[in-house]
Amino acid sequence: MNMISNFEEFISIARQKGKKRIVIAAAEDEPVLKAIKTGIESELIIPILVGNSLKINEISNNIGLSLSDIEIIHEENPAKAAVIAVQCIIEGKADILMKGLVATAPLLKAVLNKESGIKKSALLSHLAFFQSPYYHKILGITDAAMNITPSLEDKVNILRNAIGIFHKIGIELPKIAILCPLETVNEKIDSTMHAAVISTMNKRGQIDGCLIDGPLALDNAISKEAALHKGIKSDVSGDVDLLLAHDLNSGNALYKALIFLGGAKTAAVVVGAKVPIVLTSRADSEDSKLHSIALANILT
Amino acid sequence: MNMISNFEEFISIARQKGKKRIVIAAAEDEPVLKAIKTGIESELIIPILVGNSLKINEISNNIGLSLSDIEIIHEENPAKAAVIAVQCIIEGKADILMKGLVATAPLLKAVLNKESGIKKSALLSHLAFFQSPYYHKILGITDAAMNITPSLEDKVNILRNAIGIFHKIGIELPKIAILCPLETVNEKIDSTMHAAVISTMNKRGQIDGCLIDGPLALDNAISKEAALHKGIKSDVSGDVDLLLAHDLNSGNALYKALIFLGGAKTAAVVVGAKVPIVLTSRADSEDSKLHSIALANILT
């Protein structure tokens, strides 16, 4: 396979793989429980709910989620709920970790704990996929939510995390653009220096399993026509699977532009732990949460 | 007036103001001459073409642009053509400067020259307007093309340039969001520190003629609903006229995302010189060039 054209494919691949066990840290959150309900109905997940059982019961009643076959672990303190959820992963009781009504910081603290955590790669990073009405296939962007100002080494690790995910979803040689404001190297613009280095590392086999080009501005990454206009020859231009953003400012702006000013749907996971982490935000749509759960299902 | 809903309004306002004189530096470029032709047909401009007259004649013949009433100043060297075009502005022969087939660097060199240049403000900055199918009015973004890593002081100057433009197009109190990856201040994320400072400067009247809020992430800037979801109270949220990007990486990614992954139309000018500068790129559509010319017309 060399492309996935929409999120329905995510859901159908996930269904073929069968139900996965997902543990939710601080599950007492209506949008999260709604997503869990849809995930169950779509036969994607078997949940374990860690959190305030009273509130979980109340919300579940309101939204029509039957708790009869669902394991609930009572813990009122959200940070402690996160620790318990991570413990479920370590004990092999669950395949996916999902954030509920707990802040990102305490959840990541539990994940990254050197003794009781589940960190696996050099760093954790965020990988978002988009289904855009203006692009012919699923487009990935990393990192739009976690790493503030990644160094060159961090960027390589962020890429390695993402490349592993592409391989898992069946895209053997993802085409990657290192996103910059322009397509030439400029010593004053860090992103272009990093892009040149990373492209060369790919050519020399230091980063493999993918095809990388950069520096590329977004237009030249996305549109073959725009690249040709500027006389840019690139093996990835116009058919990019993944954009590496320079930093959190640019990644986050791009991520939110696609959703709020681009009509795109999204699915996202945090990569780099022993299991995929679903870390959706309150503002994400129901759809987006379901797609993220389907994605996490595929990745286990 | 408190909003402009689409670029047709730009064109009709420009028409009311009458024709303006535009000088093109290195006009021997087909896309630029096509835009000039449309600008003449739309009764927006009277051009002066500086550049290689042989090539200008040839292209004009091909695209059906009649040169009979147009002043042409022959100069084969593009950098020298830029100097001559700037000279036309100084001599009062033209109201708008437009970039033709000359690189941005030599054009700006001519503009910024201390003796023979036309710099007016503390710095030059790029201001782009967007007509997006996902937003209810024209949205500005600055700076997506010129300033690489603006300091706090630079950002204030970039804002002052943009605020002046909003006043000129008739929006008396533009609502401005200082764009960040999140809506709280984080000492590790420069953009949020700058945003807090700039917002306070606005409250204290150090930056006036506008309503500024920040830090705001793009979702909370653009969508009142997203802001309410997160419990953010903001006077600008959901009705923002202008987004200040943190740097060139984020501004440029956002600018190109709106065009290439958001179905938006754009018009842009460089601000901070004695006259508006139209600095479109080869990849810009015909429409975009015409809208930029209309915008520049309004600003003179």
Structural class by SSE content of chain A: alpha/beta
The largest sheet of chain A is: 6 strands, mixed
Instruction: Supply Rg of chain A.
Output: 19 Å
Order of helices and strands of chain A: HEHEHEHEHEEHEHEHHEHEEH
Q: How much is the average pLDDT of chain A? A: 95
What does this structure look like?
- Chain A has 11 helices and 11 strands.
- Chain A is α/β, with parallel strands linked by helices and 300 residues long.
- In chain A, the strands form 2 sheets. The first copy, chain A, has a 6-stranded mixed sheet, sandwiched between helices.
- In chain A, 57% of the residues are buried.
- The longest helix of chain A is centred in the middle third of the chain and has 17 residues, at 152-168.
- Chain A has helices at 7-17, 30-41, 53-63, 78-90, 104-112, 152-168, 190-203, 218-222, 224-229, 248-260, 286-299, and strands at residues 20-25, 45-51, 71-74, 96-99, 125-131, 139-142, 175-179, 211-216, 242-244, 265-271, 277-278.
- The A-B interface holds A 132-135, 145, 148, 179-182, 188-189, 191, 217-219, 222-223, 226, 229-230, 245-254, 256-264, 282-283 and B 132-135, 145, 148, 179-182, 188-189, 191, 217-219, 222-223, 226, 229-230, 245-254, 256-264, 282-283.
Notable characteristics:
homodimer; 300 residues; alpha/beta; 6-stranded mixed beta sheet; 5-stranded parallel beta sheet; 11 helices; 11 strands; 42% helix; elongated
Q: How are the secondary structure elements laid out?
A:
Two copies of one chain form a homodimer.
Chain A: H1 7-17, E1 20-25, H2 30-41, E2 45-51, H3 53-63, E3 71-74, H4 78-90, E4 96-99, H5 104-112, E5 125-131, E6 139-142, H6 152-168, E7 175-179, H7 190-203, E8 211-216, H8 218-222, H9 224-229, E9 242-244, H10 248-260, E10 265-271, E11 277-278, H11 286-299
Parallel strand pairs in A: 1-2, 1-4, 2-3, 4-11, 6-9, 7-8, 7-9
Antiparallel strand pairs in A: 5-6, 5-10
